[in-house]
Amino acid sequence: ETGVTQSPTHLIKTRGQQVTLRCSSQSGHNTVSWYQQALGQGPQFIFQYYREEENGRGNFPPRFSGLQFPNYSSELNVNALELDDSALYLCASTPGGTGGEKLFFGSGTQLSVL
Amino acid sequence: DAKTTQPTSMDCAEGRAANLPCNHSTISGNEYVYWYRQIHSQGPQYIIHGLKNNETNEMASLIITEDRKSSTLILPHATLRDTAVYYCIVREGGTASKLTFGTGTRLQVTL
């Protein structure tokens, strides 16, 4: 079975631009969440998607938005990029139901905003 | 979710047991203790979780004190590949994906 895959692995953007990050969840996993990890810090929860709906959100502004598709893959969109958005963005999936206690993380997308 | 406190860093000799402590004195009755680790340049990896009984799997053992205010993650025979940041997280059980990570313990395994 394939694990969680994210693309691209690295990305450089300019302040004010928009970015889309992509995530393919592990096979059979219907719940996807996104995390932001600044340098030297632990990951911070952005939001979670289940059945194509956002059903949990952390302390992030509305310019952080997402989508989940029928095949459970997901996108994270960030508008009006700021310098502080430079971070590692992690996607995690979980099967939900029994076994939903474990999150399976991808290796992340390293975003640099100049 | 209850707050956790972990040492910033620890060292361990290869082949020896690594004992990583975590304090969670405000844990409530329905909150589980989870451990994840993050090896450099990778996403976090689930290790183990428990409610009040000690747990063991192929990766590690989790010892939770009787009052549940602290726990210890034990890697019985640490190897160089266990060098990572280890996060202790407390949260309610279920399928919610929100994990509140702190800054974790940086474990350095040396020869």
Overview of this structure, please?
The complex is a heterodimer of chains A (about 110) and B (about 110). Chain A has no helices and eleven strands. In chain A, a hairpin with a 2-residue loop joins strand 5 and strand 6. Helix content of chain A is about 0%, strand content about 50%. The mean pLDDT of chain A is about 90. In chain A, strands 2, 4, 5, 6, 9, 10 and 11 form a seven-stranded mixed beta sheet that branches. In chain A, strands 1-3-8-7 form a four-stranded antiparallel beta sheet, with no helix packed on it. The N and C termini of chain B lie far apart (about 35 Å). A five-stranded mixed beta sheet of chain B has the order 1-9-8-3-4, with no helix packed on it. Chain B has a four-stranded antiparallel beta sheet with strand order 2-7-6-5, with no helix packed on it. Chain B has no helices and nine strands. Helix content of chain B is about 0%, strand content about 45%. At the A-B interface, strand 4, strand 5, strand 9 and strand 10 of A face strand 3 and strand 4 of B.
Shape of chain B: globular
Task: Report low-confidence residues of chain B grouped into runs of 5 or more.
Answer: none
* Oligomeric status: heterodimer
Describe the main β-sheet of chain B briefly. 5 strands, mixed
What is the terminal separation of chain A in angstroms? 37 Å
Distance between the termini of chain B: 37 Å
